[in-house]
């Protein structure tokens, strides 16, 4: 087990406030212990202008319309893992006790050369605009006073927490397989109740399992802030992160922050059904934007906005919800040029963007009939490929282009670590994140302490930023294999004269278009009726797929085409192949083939 | 480590659906293994009409106005731990795989002789009324079909979860101290990734860490349902539980379910500040009801409702939010008679009740000057006192009196296990719980899987219902000691001629009334100004207390009295005494004594 940086006390991190029981002062005056972190691959300070978000080696990004990253092309230098570890060493050991206040500014690199985000007051709902800070949490400012005894907050005493320690068996980077984890190469991690007081860790059960701040612990805030800087490096100064209880919750909070009843929200014409179901009861109308193989079409977005008649349709939509990578349900991935065009339309019409990116790191190499080289080399690549090549090959996020601070990016561990952590994070401008936290304080109060301390132990102490990126490299290799299995099965078993598809470039979903015009019952039967017929035949034959109509942004409009959603995330390769075979049989039967 | 019941497959529990990857069918056909659970104390089937919720031995409940429990007096027989364990053995091993559907009806005892709850359609907000089930979760009904392969839901494969096992060091009942836990008496628990497939447990990491149902796992739903039946035994048939991400979130959801902008919600005139802050931004007005030493006054509630002028003040409040035990901030505890009276007012005016009970189990024996017998005997009592005496001594909950199904009770582990679990549960009628779950599906999606599987391992497998009740008995003994310390310090160090209080009978808070009329600056200075002066002197002298005005339900009205809230939950006994000494000095200084 690798230990976290343990260095001199001092720097901005120690500004974190303590809300609770005064712990021994010795803790705050821990003697200097400088041990540099073992980073598997030493990364030089980068001056390569297109280091991140540049074209990938195999031209995949080019196929998706990658252009040169403008901000980086301007000559600014992006942060490296080494920069971050240097910064940590300089800041000194993180001292953040029970319910300590923290924010991303404590952990970010210099942002002096970046502009500040715009203000979004005119976008805020009345509900969000009037939120005040929690009076009890505000009183915590007095806890800075040396020697003060708090009879203020009703935080239970850790003595009564029935957990003395928590241990984990996890993979050691870069050998991530279950077999390696079970074998001698696996790592055993232990989290004690009082590890911080004992000076053996920066986070422990006594802190994680007590009340905390709604935006999450300082320990995990540092980690997600650094990770976001590595991956997205937002081009404005006052960006911040806040932990969430997952992106579904983040979306609901964001809609309540930005929309009032009667407002419209733009999204892909086929969109995540839960997102659509979230908006409806809030009285928020979902407005579909046309798509192609790269997802949302900026021209269509422009057309919707330009043609909006406020006198008949109410306020012009001022929010876009989009899943740029491996979109659910279509699997479509926006290339860089597409993203920049969408961002420009948003600027032109003053649209705020909710960027939902659970599948961002599941960007894959292009599918090659009969199996790509990634299939064989995934694990090897994850172990040996420089992490910067991985990061450099990813399509830039909308957040990374966001000069205005008009993007709220939603990140999630659900698809890349475990869904059950119910822990993710949002990144946006200081104003928007502050409003988000005010809301979280009076609803979910932030993620589980178990989830926070366990992920911190794994991601920060055990793997570090590099190990986590290697984990992601390995994972996308695994999903690439799975994608290739389902695509191979589709080629073999589906009737190509009526079923068509694009190979997914990211994510977990494969979207199949079935040509309703060639169905013998069309137009006597509607698309929805034919879709239902095929779905029912699928169930009878023993395969469950998603009906395309479930995902229509505008449920009241009749669909123009017929689709089915399949996932390659869950079933075994054998079952996946069998399932596609059954789907093919169901379609043939319905079409009388 | 004690193992859970492992018995024949069958019964209602196996009706739980599977939403995800078909696991080996062998799992569903596990051979019969009947091992009865070791219950430390064998509890006979009770026919004592006032077995639960009867008067406690020392007359404490009487002092709080306990009357004979009507339902039990009617001759019905309440459930015992033994009944529950018998029921589990008959139902057979719980088979609930990834994202299995479950509800309390699968785990409750017979309810045939109970009426059904009333319908609450007229109480639901437009937002809540229109919620539809998640289309993707509804599709899960097809997963019952044998042999069906799902390409439906995008649930990741557990193979990619980087947690092979999770282990815990916890106290073994009834030796709950930290020292005993660290010593040879402590228990080591282990949760493997595939314990269920291996047949060694009913819950494991592969299930807990995947997506689940928003109302929580079947495993924890069973536990909270049984616990609620043991403690509250709601007197109507169709009650159900749903897990929550904590009671703050549950309150916010409940307000959104029941209220529209402009509505008023009744609560104690001094109330939990976070609750007040939750209501405000929703446009929900908080209406204070007068209190005495037992908390909310039913006569005042009647007066407010009877005198409500809908033409000038809008819709008459139809929701009451109350903390019956150890109310925050006053520490007041409603006796049984008080609760019944409040319930009757609610029936008369058709008011729906939100019963927030984080401190329910921290009901204490009466304070005796110089230390009660509990101070010495707490741990001993927790080890030897029959758990039924403990349950029988608790004041009945509003839920236990709720013949209409008009109560939504909010339970929490925050004050009695760990706040960081962000896990609690609500209990209410099937209709209300269904609406609650529909909301949770599109916001928080239920609690962390880490929290669920860890609490299940501790509470269900390790401690069982009896061990958990013993834990609670021990804990209230600990809080009794702490309460007695602060009360002793108050007697010693506060100027009794201007400061007065009642000894708290439950919870974590001690509420001090300071007589503003005797302040030399009154009435030249307002109560708020004098309160501020004392607060600032406290900070200067090194003690943080809560200002009474922070907790006023109706912030815009001038207070009639002056209060300060202190907590005995967190500081060490020595610091607590010192802090009260400083508070006394600050008050004397302000009063020029």
Question: What labels would you give this structure?
Answer:
4-stranded antiparallel beta sheet; 7-stranded mixed beta sheet; globular; disordered N terminus; alpha/beta; 35% helix; homodimer; 593 residues; Aspartate Aminotransferase, domain 1; Aspartate Aminotransferase, domain 2
Describe this structure in words.
Two copies of one chain form a homodimer. By secondary structure, chain A is α/β, with parallel strands linked by helices. Chain A folds into two domains: 1-72 and 84-475, Aspartate Aminotransferase, domain 2; 477-591, Aspartate Aminotransferase, domain 1 (Alpha-Beta Complex). The first copy, chain A, is 35% helix and 12% strand. Chain A contains 19 helices and 17 strands. The first copy, chain A, has helices at 60-63, 70-73, 81-91, 126-129, 135-138, 178-182, 205-208, 218-231, 247-258, 273-279, 298-306, 310-313, 336-348, 373-384, 387-393, 430-441, 449-493, 527-541, 573-591; strands spanning 149-150, 165-170, 187-192, 239-244, 264-268, 285-289, 291-292, 295-296, 319-322, 352-356, 407-412, 424-429, 499-500, 509-514, 543-544, 546-547, 562-567. A seven-stranded mixed β-sheet of chain A has the order 4-12-11-10-9-5-6, with helices on both faces. In chain A, helix 8 packs parallel to helix 17. Chains A and B meet through helix 4, strand 1, strand 2, helix 6 and helix 9 of A and helix 4, strand 1, strand 2, helix 6 and helix 9 of B.
């Amino acid at each position: 087990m690798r230990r976290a940086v343990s260095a001199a006390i001092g720097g901005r991190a120690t500004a974190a406030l303590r809300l609770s029981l005064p712990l021994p002062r010795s803790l705050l005056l821990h003697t200097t212990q400088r041990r540099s972190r073992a980073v598997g691959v030493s990364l030089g300070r980068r001056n390569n202008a297109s280091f991140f978000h540049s074209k990938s080696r195999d031209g995949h990004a080019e196929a998706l319309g990658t252009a040169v990253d403008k901000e980086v092309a301007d000559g600014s230098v992006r942060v490296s893992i080494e920069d971050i570890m240097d910064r940590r060493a300089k800041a000194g050991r993180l001292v953040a006790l029970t319910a300590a206040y923290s924010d991303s500014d404590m952990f970010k690199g210099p942002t002096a050369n970046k502009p500040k985000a715009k203000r979004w007051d005119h976008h805020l709902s009345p509900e969000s605009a009037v939120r005040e800070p929690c009076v009890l949490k505000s009183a915590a400012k007095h806890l800075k006073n040396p020697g003060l005894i708090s009879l203020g907050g009703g935080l239970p005493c850790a003595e009564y927490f029935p957990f003395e320690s928590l241990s984990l068996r996890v993979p050691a980077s870069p050998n991530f397989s279950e077999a390696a984890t079970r074998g001698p190469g696996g790592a055993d991690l232990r989290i004690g109740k009082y590890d911080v007081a004992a000076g053996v860790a920066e986070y422990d059960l006594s802190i994680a399992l007590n009340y905390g701040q709604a935006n999450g612990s300082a320990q995990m805030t540092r980690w997600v802030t650094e990770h976001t800087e590595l991956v997205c490096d937002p081009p404005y100064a006052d960006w911040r992160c806040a932990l969430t209880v997952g992106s579904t919750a983040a979306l609901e909070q964001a809609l309540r922050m930005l929309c009032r009843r009667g407002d419209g929200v733009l999204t892909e014409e086929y969109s995540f059904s839960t997102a659509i179901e979230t908006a409806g009861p809030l009285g928020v109308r979902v407005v579909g934007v046309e798509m192609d193989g790269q997802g949302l079409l900026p021209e269509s977005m422009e057309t919707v906005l330009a043609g909006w008649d406020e006198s008949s349709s109410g306020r012009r939509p001022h929010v876009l919800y989009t899943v740029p990578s491996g979109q659910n349900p279509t699997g479509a991935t926006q290339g860089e040029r597409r993203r920049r065009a969408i961002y420009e339309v948003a600027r032109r019409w003053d649209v705020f963007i909710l960027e939902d990116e659970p599948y961002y790191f599941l960007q894959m190499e292009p599918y090659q009939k009969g199996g790509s080289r990634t299939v064989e080399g995934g694990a090897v690549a994850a172990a040996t490929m420089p992490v910067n090549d991985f990061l450099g090959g990813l399509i830039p996020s909308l957040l990374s282009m966001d000069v205005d601070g008009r993007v709220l990016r939603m990140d999630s561990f659900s698809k890349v670590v475990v869904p059950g952590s119910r822990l993710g994070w949002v990144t946006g401008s200081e104003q928007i994140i502050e409003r988000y936290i005010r809301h979280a304080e009076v609803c979910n109060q932030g993620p589980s302490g178990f989830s926070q301390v366990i992920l911190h132990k794994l991601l920060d102490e055990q793997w570090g930023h590099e190990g986590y990126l290697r984990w992601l490299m390995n994972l996308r290799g695994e999903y690439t294999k799975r994608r290739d299995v389902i695509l191979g099965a589709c080629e073999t078993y589906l009737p190509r004269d009526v079923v068509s598809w694009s190979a997914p470039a990211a994510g977990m979903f494969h979207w199949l278009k079935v040509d309703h015009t060639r169905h013998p019952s069309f137009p006597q039967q509607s698309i929805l009726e034919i879709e239902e017929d095929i779905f029912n035949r699928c169930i009878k034959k023993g395969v469950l797929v998603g009906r395309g109509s479930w995902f229509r942004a505008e449920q009241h409009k009749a669909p123009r085409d017929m689709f089915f959603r399949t996932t390659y995330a869950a079933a075994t390769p054998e079952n996946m192949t069998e399932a596609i075979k059954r789907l093919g049989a169901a379609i043939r039967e319905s079409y009388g083939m």
